Amino acid sequence: MQKKIFGIIVILITLLPCNSFALDKHVAVFQKAKSEVAKGMYHFNEMHYLAAIEFFRKALEVYPDYYTANEYLARSYKLAGYTNLALQQWQILLDMAKENPLIQNKIDMINFRGSVYSSLEKLFELIETVAYSPVDLGRFRFSSPIDIAIDNDKNMYITSFSNGKLVKLDPNGEGIFTRTYSLEGKLYGIDYRSGLLAVSDFANNKVLVINTDGKIIKTIGTTGNALGQFNGPEGVCFGGDSSLYIVDSGNHRVQKFGLDGLFILAFGQYGEYEGQLNKPTDVAVRNENVYVTDTNNKRIAVFDDSGNFIENMIPTEFAVPRGIYIQGNLMAVSDEKKGLFMYNVESGQSQWFTNWEGKKKFYHLTSAVMDDNGFVYTCSNKNEAIYVFSPLQQQISNIEVEVTNVDAKKFPTVAVYCNIRDRYGRPIYGLTQENFTIIEDGATITNMSADYLKNMMPAASMVMCVDRSGSLKNYHNDVPWLAEFILQKMHKNDKLKIINFADGTWVANPYDWSRRRALKALKTFDYGKGRDIGKALYTAISDVLPEMSRRGVILITDGEASQNDFKAYSPDVVIDYAKSHFIPVYILTLKTKSPILMRIAQETGGAIYKGSELDGLRTVYDVIKKANDYRYVLIYSTFKMKSLKGWWSDLTVNVSYKGQKGTEWAGYFVP
Fold first, then answer.
1. Co-location of 52 and 186 in the same domain
2. Domain total for the chain?
3. CATH number at residue 408
């Protein structure tokens, strides 16, 4: 018995050092991988995604099952523009962690956006996400809502016909202000465009142009039937040519004004024949066409922007068509008696939406508008309710939350940079602090702010890529002329970096606001061999990526391009890289517009203009500087102390918006 015990002890003593050695080796391997991950995280949070990729790869070579390294490798691929590689990496992760809903959602989002579907404006089934009633709003209550407008921040502006009030609510339905412009006023139509609202006062026969604080900028019209006068103005709509269309219902016509209040033209007269109207109610503009709800004639009358009659549209049997709104190809017509009619003006497909959830329905529907993310806001006049609906597809899928970097340089202050998108990849703008929750190591952060970028003074940060290949030598003197469309408008809080490129890239002028120094660089005769447009654009996007102001990339070239001009980075990678960070690419050409360059400009949210398209060239700077910044910066003070240097902090970012939810996890090493 003693021999057996002694033998067991000998065996245990023999095995212990080996197991201990194996454990120590395992720990050492993991620590080596963790060191590579820490380097990768540094570059990731500096938005150096290509460098981050290399370190995460090294970590996985050492320790293949390192979950964080796998996840951040996929994220780095995605944010660097390599969407297909990100998809492959997330599939590997899904195999490692079966039925992980966050990973599955990332894969589903990419596959959906890459699939072929007819149009973002395809017809859909609507689901109610929220309803606003005046009884719940206290002093911000509205009475008999007649029309609604949505601004870029997703704030709602509601006109009240019975008491003449204008009510502004934030995206979550919290009251911001009420305005009463006249004791006897009866506000009717409202529309929003570029920081301005147009509001019609039916009783006082005038239209107010106001800012988003409700301050009157301009008053248009007086009582009467002469040109420029009104008899019961109702619907209003901003045109694409800095104009304003106003439905002069009592005079059976539509009048067009400049934003300076000057009358331009009028069209329509009483009757039932072509070009005639009978008590029209509302107006919408699509491209060069103007659509009018010809209420008593039960049809939609279509004119061009010069007032010439085109056609009468009767895509369905209307009862009392009132409101009309158009976004893309989708038209929404509010019929007072029948409900909401959705119509695709390109395909001709249509659908009535009259009730929901079994027994709910509209009572005297007067208006329906859509925001950029497909939400539909409706005014049900008689039961005094604003119903907000979302497409069924958006309710099925989650919001995409993407953390692009975490900045802990000013620890204990932490800044989490996020992109928020819907199912289609469109940015969700206008979220407030109430829509976000951050959890750090299991503790909910209570002192978080989400308005950092929104509160900054608008400024533009731009990188201009100038083609210096041999074929551009003949256009040397035209390059500064093209650039002047941007340079002449710049202010001291703007900055422009100039990158020359041929087969490689080199800096001609660092970030600067000086027009003189920029022109000097542009006039310098500095050319090279070959041409790699892909490398130049990728470099420019990387340079402007971390800037905190409005961002844009400008390419000046002859307009010719083929796949041979994208040796380092393909057009797909350039497009996905720019789209991942909401950076538009504007292309100014001296000769032509190749299909490849047209695609890059269109899909990144930019535009392409030839040197002869002066009107377009004049808009580039203004569009960049006035654009919405779709990034969110969530800033908070952590409860951790500096003594925890090197500690990995787990973060979870939750987003909730109009019945939709999204989640992303992230983290940082305590500096």
1. no
2. 4
3. 2.60.40.10
Q: Which two tokens stand for residue 148?
A: 């609604």
Torsion of CA 384, 385, 386, 391, to 10 degrees: -140
What's the CA gap between 94 and 89, in Å, rounded?
Answer: 9
Whether 614 and 641 map to the same domain: the answer is no
> How far is residue 144 from each of residues 186, 210, 322, 334, measured CA to CA in Å?
11, 22, 15, 16
- The answer to whether position 87 is within a domain reads yes
Beta bridge partners of 130: 388
Ordered alpha helix ranges (H), 403-514: 478-487
- Asked if 90 and 137 sit in the same domain, the reply is no
Among the listed residues 337, 325, 436, the one whose alpha carbon sits nearest the alpha carbon of residue 380:
337
Alpha-helical runs (H) found in 361-420: 392-396
Q: Of 255, 147, 132, 269, which is closest to residue 197 (Cα–Cα)?
A: 147
- Detail the DSSP E strand segments found in 328-426: 330-335, 339-344, 350-353, 355-356, 360-361, 365-370, 376-380, 385-391, 400-407, 413-421
- The verdict on 255 and 341 lying in the same domain is yes
Phi-psi region of 95 (alpha: psi -120 to 50; beta: other; left: phi over 0): alpha
Structure tokens that stand for 59 in this block: 């970590």
Give per-residue pLDDT as tens, 459-496: 999 999 999 999 899 999 999 999 999 999 999 999 99
Evaluate whether residue 20 is within a structural domain: no
**Same structural domain, 478 and 600:** yes
Single out the residue of 12, 9, 61 nearest to residue 35, CA to CA: 61
Half-sphere exposure of 71 (CA within 13 A, CB side): 17
Question: Pick from 65, 53, 63: which is nearest to 32 by CA?
Answer: 63
Cα–Cα distance measured from residue 145 to residue 188, given in angstroms and rounded to the nearest whole number: 9
Asked if residue 423 is part of any domain, the answer here is yes
Instruction: Identify the weakest region by mean pLDDT among 109-118, 429-438, 640-649.
Output: 109-118
Which residues contact residue 24 at a Cβ distance below 8 angstroms, ignoring those fewer than 6 apart?
none
Average pLDDT taken over every residue of the chain:
90
Domain that holds residue 662: 398-451+630-669
CATH number at residue 601: 3.40.50.410
**Pair 200, 294 in one domain:** yes
pLDDT at 251: 97
Helix (H, G, I), strand (E, B) or coil at 389: strand
